[in-house]
Amino acid sequence: MPRWAMVIDLDKCTGCGACMAACKMENNVAIVDSKEAQAGRALFWMDMITTYEGEYPTVAAKRMPKPCFQCDNPPCTKVCPVRATYRNNEGLVAQIYHRCIGCRYCMAACPFTTKVFNWYEPQWLEGANKCFNPDVSVRAVGVVEKCSFCAHRLQHVKEVADLEKRPLQDGEYVPACSEICPADAISFGDLENKDSAVYKLSRSYRASRVMEDLGVEPKVYYLSKRVS
Amino acid sequence: MMDKTHQCDLDQDAALYRPIYQTGRGYYVVGGIFLAVYLFSIYMYYAQIRNGLGVTGMNQPVTWGFYIVNFVFFIGISHAGTLISAILRLSKAEWRRPITRMAEVITAIVLAIGGLHPIIDLGRPDRMMNLLESGRLQSPLLWDVTSITAYFTASTVYLYLPMIPDIARIRDRGGKLTWLYTFMAWGWQGTERQKQVLNRAINILMVMVIPIAISVHTVISYIFSMTLQPGWHSTIFGPYFVAGAIFSGIAALLIVMIIFRKVFHFEDYLKQIHFQYLGTLLLIMSIIWFYFTFSEYLTGIFGGEPHEMNTILYKFSGPFAFFFWGMVLCNFVIPVTILSFRKFKTISGVLIASIAVVIGMWLERFIIVVPSLANPRMELPLGIYIPSLVEWALFAGGLSVFALGFMVFAKFFPLISIWEIEEGRIHGVKEVEERIHSYLPGRELSNL
Question: Which of B367, B337, B363, B364 is nearest to B350 (CA)?
């Protein structure tokens, strides 16, 4: 089983938010009006966490893009009562939208708060509903969704590789956020492939994962000189 | 009508039949109010179905709110009944006789209400059947479905069986709905053989019902403790929840007893002594509850793990401080003060303590569910949760169904087990005397 992983270089990241925007477009993520977003109902598959350090006048803002960590030992799939979220053959944590009963147990169980819920019937900007990405299903009201590592892209490149009767190349399968990043801060690839860029980066002295001690084995690494 | 009242008065236990045959104006007024509240909550739920869960106050990260709180709360109350009545029956406590029926009714009604709450909470109630079609038995939610179903089945049967002789009595009186009572009495004639079979069935059920009841609240606590979330991931949650459930159950039972004692004039049946005994039980449970709460928070604070501490401080001195200290006041300070002193342990004292405990236990459920979600491990801005009108309406609706359920039950069946009172009068007194002799040196009990 491949271990698709993401490495986010926080020393390169400018916090511009292009990854969030690309993700929204790529995955047909609904737009929530500002009042609802204020109430904590914004839908982000790729989120941006901003924390502030220090006091005025020496304030430093830390920005950290946060996709789903695609754990190898995910707490969310364990609790799902109907197997609407599970680890698929590619090692990715997948969602089955049309099976989800909307109990939100997986959201409560996720230590990283990466899952989002369709509190209302999803809405899009005027015209945006005419140019959905056809590879990604549109979700209905009352189901949980989250970052899929753009699994539809994997499906696509796998079919191409199969047709050409060759194995997948490193860098062939990349999610939208990684592709768009102007600072080239997001690398993506297979940890099982020892020659891949992510494998090398994940072994860097700067690499760490969020809350490694929980034992859920997240597959998103952060590179930073500041993080120990 | 005059005729029937006359007939009732001939009976020794006429007071117990009276609510079935006589309905005052107050009944319709109170019933009408509850019905209105109930209908309003149905309308609100319809709005939720139409618009989605957005009409509630829930959000990310506070993904569970009132519905799950009330689910845990109502299922907790349900432990009043069957468990108390089974334990009292099992331990041959003679004073149980006028209490058991009400306790069992509480269980049946409240379980139906509580069991519906997770469904109200679903984003897609239309896909509820997925739980049966593609349910994963590894999920704590499925354990819940299983154990609550088992508990509901066992406790409704356990309510119904001891009602059979009473239903037969009503059937024999004639009057209203004879066909229904004839059907429900299952041809009860009170023969020796029938009594034997019934006793045996009740004995089997009461032993069965105790582990089922304990499993129900243990498994509900597992929903929380099986996750890794700070404040939830605790090994004592099982017994902590069970103790809390019995605690709130006894309090609810006491409130129901006091209300019906007043409304239906059961003063002769529910005596000072019953409230004294149950009050003592409530006092013991209050102390046990405090012991669990103390252990739970002390271990958290002593370890001082940062995420755990965030949640604890959020409860102790953060936005939830009012609810947290209110809970300690209602669950420990008030009941212990009232119930420890003979002077305060009157029926009104017990009523105040019980109301405090029910409120306190609801607060406890609220304090367990929301703060852990509002303080996620990730460094996010704190979650906020303000319940919406829909959630309040459905809460009020749940309470109304409880009241309505009792009111309807009281119009069809006696709220105090008539045959058990009679049995106590005829056999109980003799039996107890004999039993006490057998405890003393020199005599053996003939048939144990």
Answer: B337
Structural domains of chain A in order of their starting residue, each with its CATH number: 4-223 (3.30.70.20)
Per-residue model confidence as pLDDT tens digits over A177-205: 999 999 999 999 999 989 999 999 999 99
Give me the number of domains chain B comprises.
Answer: 1
ipTM over 0.85: yes
Query: Could you tell me which of A125, A176, A173, A122 has the C-alpha nearest to residue A145?
Result: A122
Which of A49, A96, A104 is the best substitution to test chain B (most B C-beta atoms within 10 A)? A104
Distance CA B320, CA A55 (A): 26
pLDDT by residue (tens digit) across B31-66? 999 999 999 999 999 999 999 999 999 988 899 999
Question: Which residues, in sequence order, are CB contacts of B358 under 8 Å at separation 6+?
Answer: B77, B248, B251, B252, B255
- Is residue B2 domain-resident? no
- Within-domain flag for B18: no
Cβ distance B124 to A101 less than 8 Å, yes or no, reads yes
Contacts of A217 in chain B (CB under 8 A): none
**Percentages helix, strand, coil for chain B, rounded to the nearest 5?**
75, 0, 25
Q: CB B52 to CB A118 under 8 A?
A: yes
- Please spell the DSSP secondary structure of A58-116, one letter per residue: S-EEEEEEE-----SS-HHHHH-SSSSEEE-TTS-EEE-TTT-----HHHHH-TT---E
> Is A142 close to B123, i.e. CB distance below 8 A?
yes
Domain of B54, in residue numbers:
24-125+137-438
Question: Is B228:A79 a contact under the CB 8 Å cutoff?
Answer: no
A82-98 pLDDT tens trace: 999 999 999 999 999 99
Instruction: Please give the single-letter amino acid code of residue B255.
Output: I
Q: Which residue of A has its CA nearest to B141?
A: A81
Structure pTM?
0.92
